[in-house]
């Protein structure tokens, strides 16, 4: 039984006649291969990554599991289409709060075409990418049974300033998060979700240590997903907060050089979160 | 008694009728204020930096001491010209080996004019800045009494590839450094100069820790100088290896954001050096 995912916050979505991802009820996420070289680049990354024995075990958990590719009926009913079969990283959460953060002040790789570079450069400059080293690409925050999810409009997210980003990172861990700009976020879940030895900050620091050393891949236009469930936190249980990396259509070989673009952006995000 | 410095490896030099820096015999370095806003920007930086009490003591030592500005006769004899009076960071060394490394994959700041951005962008792309997060701007390596200094031509340095950079960082700490590409650098000073608790690597890591936290300044187009004296090392004494930051004509306010561009490049340099 394939269906459109409930909790997708960024990227191409299955709506308006577009082909989008699908999920099944056994925790798989089916991502349609994009046309042109992007789709094959992402398959190539997952294939190379999965078979690389130089990735430490504690780093593997930041990546969705890869189960190959499969031809399945596209979400728009237009016939069979090749899909990446990945782990559905939010399937184990009830009412997950999710933020998708694209890392790097630069989302293009040096070998890209001038046209592509100009397009990305414009987006990086108009968003917070250039200034902060990252930009928020999407988010949903679960409020309560009554209020449901707060999920700001894509256009709104596109225009986030540095100040907005600071506020949103606070709202993300607040019990009173809403579109209302008059409400001061209480950050009541900050210590559980961001803090602690299993919290998001600890996980980001682990990733950072790996990025200071690894020279295998450069992750352009890749996102950090931050996921947690407010239900668990409210019940006094662990937040189950997790960091995952997603979107590898623009990963290139590192050639013995660290990914200083990703690392710089990641350090900037860490600083923002550590200040909350 | 002012004279043209013996050991300048990068930047504007007092030759060909150009105004360049001067030194005196009490350890001062006189840097002519550049025209336009660059000169005043550098004065503004030193003034602001010197009076900022949030800079930790162990970080202050990475910056040349600032002694204000002074009107002195320009190096080309064209009359009085305003100069920055700085500490001459190499005056205490005998036959210093020096490398000037411009940090950051991007040498322009987001608020710069399009024309300036395009100019810098081209240089960053043609040099190793974009790929490595830093580029070598100049160097001199002392060989022996007989061979004197090896100081590659500026044009040669401009065309350094990633592979060249790796080689030069090895040559810099070798007893057999020379222009001869057939000679394999012996790296015989690597453990003393790069390594150890007072070595260059330890100093760069100290700087890195500060850059992970500081949000006061963004250092565009700023250089790390690495200095040591082979004479001392050969005699079994400490290398006196020092790291200094220089060139602050393009420092801008950090506005609460870390300098992820500098930090990323610095981490990349650290990785290169740690592999030697």
Automatic annotation (TrEMBL), chains A, B:
What's an example Gene Ontology biological process for this entry?
inositol phosphate biosynthetic process
Q: What class of enzyme is it?
A: transferase
Which reactions appear under catalytic activity for this entry? 1D-myo-inositol 1,3,4,6-tetrakisphosphate + ATP = 1D-myo-inositol 1,3,4,5,6-pentakisphosphate + ADP + H(+); 1D-myo-inositol 1,4,5-trisphosphate + 2 ATP = 1D-myo-inositol 1,3,4,5,6-pentakisphosphate + 2 ADP + 2 H(+)
Q: What is its EC number?
A: 2.7.1.140, 2.7.1.151
Q: Which domain of life is it from?
A: Eukaryota
Sorted UniProt keywords: ATP-binding, Kinase, Nucleotide-binding, Transferase
Return the InterPro entries for the record: IPK, IPK_sf
* Gene Ontology, cellular component aspect: cytoplasm; nucleus
What GO MF annotations does this protein's record show? ATP binding; inositol tetrakisphosphate kinase activity; inositol-1,4,5-trisphosphate 3-kinase activity
Which family is this protein grouped under? Belongs to the inositol phosphokinase (IPK) family.
Summarize the protein's role.
Inositol phosphate kinase with a broad substrate specificity.
Q: Enumerate the PANTHER family for this protein.
A: INOSITOL POLYPHOSPHATE KINASE (PTHR12400), INOSITOL POLYPHOSPHATE MULTIKINASE (PTHR12400:SF51)
What is the official name of this protein in its record?
A: Inositol polyphosphate multikinase
Origin species, per record, is Carpinus fangiana
